[in-house]
Write a structure and sequence with these properties.
Elements (H helix, E strand, L loop, with lengths): L3 E11 L5 E6 L10 E2 L2 E3 L6 H13 L2 E14 L3 E14 L10 E5 L13 H8 L3 E4 L6 H13 L5 E4 L6 H17 L3 E5 L12 E4 L1 H6 L10 E6 L2 H10 L3 E4 L15 H10 L5 E4 L7 H6 L4 E4 L6
Parallel strand pairs: 1-6, 8-9, 8-15, 9-10, 10-11, 11-12, 12-13, 13-14, 14-15
Antiparallel strand pairs: 1-2, 1-4, 2-3, 2-7, 5-6
Length: about 325
């Protein structure tokens, strides 16, 4: 039996200080009644995602979108239908949102979203809303003073809020010592720190999560860390993206988008192939490989969460 395909536009509406997002409760007489969701609705056959979203938000909440950009596209299979959620992040709007159809609406702090029950199709959106658009991967550094200066600059001057501690040249003891210092700096400046390597490192350092190499990713059969921690992974093709979804990664990097000095022999994906892979990913995806801040809007336009970089952030 051919499944019915439903195209839905949804909005992550962010308040002025960027700390809260608007959610709405589904009526009790519809599918998933009583659960919370990001407001939006089905597209008419002639509408684009943004056109349909503008109409839906006016009808449901009485607001007019002034500035928005793509956040994530989520494909989800239900027994009787295939849902495509075309999700936009709304940064500016006119009007005061209220439930024009009698539905409950609520501004919720980002760090409290996980406490609300959502339909399964909304779970990748939750991750995307809570993630920043820039993911710093630390550079190799043999001097601890220079390491701390570079990390502090990225946190203070660039406002980086997600950091992966990558230090392949350090032995385990030196890595853990650096991780303790990096975690203290990240906590001080409101950033999350993910450790690169063996998930057991979280037993020694209470960081915010783990980043898996693609080799380690492909050897796993299940999620290796607790749900309350962030799990990311390096991916390079559709097989690895599928594996990341299978074990429950919260987000991934996908690379290389461009040729890089560190891996000049690896053929780059380019924007077209990158977009095709991201379209079917089951989680937010950061573009990696020759990325700079000037690429951020382009990356978002083709479906990425944002950009990940060493060289552009680590000076």
């Amino acid at each position: 039996m051919v499944k019915r395909r439903v195209h839905v536009a949804a909005a992550a509406i962010i308040n002025e200080d960027g700390r809260k997002v608007l959610i709405a409760r589904r009526p009790s007489n519809v599918d998933h009644g009583g659960l919370w969701e990001f407001p939006g609705g089905k597209l008419a056959p002639y509408e684009t995602g943004l056109e349909g979203l503008k109409r839906e938000l006016h009808e449901e909440l009485g607001v007019e979108i002034q500035r928005a950009q793509p956040l994530i596209r989520v494909h989800h299979e239900y027994p009787e239908k295939h849902i495509l959620l075309d999700v936009w992040q709304v940064h500016a709007f006119a009007g005061e949102p209220f439930g024009r159809e009698g539905q409950a609406v609520r501004w919720v702090p980002m760090d409290e979203l996980a406490g609300y029950p959502f339909p399964a199709a909304n779970l990748p959106i939750l991750r995307a809303v809570m993630l920043p658009t820039e993911y710093l991967i630390t550079g190799e550094e043999d001097d601890e003073a220079r390491f701390e200066a570079s990390l502090t600059r990225a946190l203070v001057e660039d406002g980086v809020r997600m950091v992966q501690l990558r230090a392949k040249l350090l032995d385990e003891g030196a890595y853990l010592a650096r991780a303790e210092r990096a975690l203290a700096l990240c906590r001080e400046h409101g950033a999350r720190l993910l450790l690169n390597g063996d998930p057991e490192r979280l037993e020694r350092i209470d960081a915010d999560g783990i980043h898996l190499t693609s080799e380690r990713l492909m050897k796993l059969e299940r999620r290796p860390i607790a749900e309350e921690k962030w799990l990311s992974a390096s991916t390079h093709d559709s097989r690895q993206l599928a594996q990341a979804g299978l074990i429950g990664c919260d987000f991934v990097t996908l690379s290389p988008l461009r040729t890089t000095p560190s891996h000049p022999e690896v053929a780059p994906l380019g924007w077209h192939d990158f977009q095709q892979l991201v379209e079917r990913a089951a989680m937010p995806v950061f573009a990696l490989g020759g990325m700079t801040r000037f690429d951020a809007n382009h990356a978002r336009a083709v479906g990425a969460q944002g950009i990940a970089s060493i060289r552009d952030f680590w000076k």
